Amino acid sequence: MTDTYVGAVDQGTTGTRFMVFDHSGQVVANAYEKHEQIYPEPGWVEHDPMEIWENTKSVITSALGQAGISPDQLEAIGVTNQRETTLLWDAESGKPVHNALVWQDRRTTSRVEQLEEDGMVDTIREKTGLEADAYFSATKAEWLLENADPIKMERTRPSDIQDRAAEGEVLFGTIDTWLIYNLTGNHITEVTNASRTMLYNIHDLEWDDELLEEFDVSREMLPEVRPSSDEDTYGTTDPDGFLEAEIPVAGALGDQQAALFGQTCFDAGEAKNTYGTGSFFLMNTGEEAVESEHGLLTTIGFQRSGEPVQYALEGAIFITGAAIEWLEDMTLIDDPAETAELARSVDSTDGVYFVPAFTGLGAPHWDQRARGTIVGMTRGTRKEHVVRATLESIAYQTRDVAEAMEADSGIEMQDLKVDGGAVKNNYLCQLQSDIIGSEISRPVVDETTALGSAYAAGLAVGYWGDVEGLRDNWQVDREFTPEMDPEKADRMYSRWSDAVERSLGWATDGGD
What we know:
This protein is of the alpha/beta class. It is 34% helix and 21% strand. The N and C termini lie far apart (61 Å).
């Protein structure tokens, strides 16, 4: 009998990965390609959707080819994606009308401030569980409808973009929708990605008419919303297409919810933190949408076919791994692997604190105009102190969110499951355990984002029977327990709070 597998497209902020998993949840194939980061103006971040689609096809064929796996050995494909990143495309040609606006993009900050002045913040929070912020998709879609270059649209006059959108001839999507559309031909998203658009009512589980009107987004341009793990599937790949096989696309989750699923946080109170470009801390709250009083987001965690939605509390930290990339950009390090050695080479940061608010601050501060700040430097400050302060900033930001999470949920966190590229750094994991004062569990398979979407697709088609079997797959690579004196950790954290205060509200209209 031929072995069969489940594949996962993991489309992230800096690149696209395709991974193939077997029944035990082990990786049997893996390919990755970066894509270009486009910065047209300060604070603007774009991606080329066609480059992302071409890279997706490339990594799928590369991974399968390198592992000697035939496409028809895939029982299903799952998709996971950078959330909130938004694009519009021409339904007739399938071509984007503009580059995608990335979740990091801040060009609509003034529009969000207008929403605040108009008293829309509470309405948005009540309906969507989100803070009014340029981070989410709604203001990005509005900007694209107003500013997309009509030259890129076939047979379209400049005044026609919004008119054609109202006719369903211009389609809206986040990256999951774009990939599902190109894989299957169907215009579909799923509940976790819909919940990040600032257009979707997470209680009624439908697109919200009041919000659609506010942002001038036509219902006709929106995708159908389906469960994250869908027994009806989203469609199949084209047997005449690049894979030359008919494979069900049966599961999708926004990247952070995919990591929650991949870390098998299926029950209320279970939590994970993913350390990528940013860090995203999610706690499953079960069938209850817990309203945050401490600056967290209420979001949809996942939904399986025929089952109720599982909600989550989320703390979104915009810049963590990207702070390490900044150290590279500034030639303070040559490689991220150096950071642990450099940090260990000094006893402390010597009073230096780094607040990496390059794109504002997310949870629990939500200050769009905060900016990156280094405080406490003296003539004796060396790069080792700045590197150590950078790693500490990741741990401090996570504690900011952990404390808010415990206050909202009433659950004292004993163990935090971690994943993402930065958790390969043992120094950071130990520091994180020390600063938040709880155990840190790192799994053997740390690509839990891809694994989560594979699990969602595999469950939908019966490749895996139930979630309990998935729990059995989850294995600890290493656990970290607090070693630092709690009073010392509290003192360090208190000074971090002082540093954050210095970063708030820095950018002005003239200084953005």
